[in-house]
């Protein structure tokens, strides 16, 4: 939440800090059916499906974190 909130000006930080976790919860709507579909594959099973989804989501998280701009020393005097 902190990283998401730092991307915005001071007047939008509280909105972003409360909205970001809701996007994570909303991702369950997509993840659960994909897990159910992969679990039905006999070669994967429950553990394989969970591992595959976990690996894909970790790759997505690392990619997202690596593309964030550095915010240290950023001027917070936004014009909005």
Order of helices and strands: HHHH
Major sheet size, sense and barrel closure: none
Tell me the overall shape: elongated
User: Which structural class do the helices and strands define?
Assistant: mainly alpha
Which spans of ≥5 residues are poorly predicted at pLDDT below 50? none
Average per-residue pLDDT, rounded, comes to 87
Tally of helical runs: 4
**Assembly of the depicted chains:** single chain
Distance between the termini: 21 Å
Helix content: 55-70%
Tally of discrete structural domains = 1
Description:
With 80 residues, this protein is mainly α. The chain has one domain (2-66). 66% of the residues lie in helices and 0% in strands. The protein contains 4 helices and no strands. The protein has helices at residues 2-6, 13-26, 28-39, 45-66. Helix 3 runs antiparallel to helix 4. The longest helix has 22 residues, at 45-66. The radius of gyration is 17 Å and the shape is elongated.
Keywords for this entry:
mainly alpha; 4 helices; elongated
What is the gist of this entry?
The protein has 80 residues and is mainly alpha-helical. The protein has helices at residues 2-6, 13-26, 28-39, 45-66.
Blueprint (SSEs and pairs):
Blueprint: H1 2-6, H2 13-26, H3 28-39, H4 45-66
Helix pairs in contact: 3-4
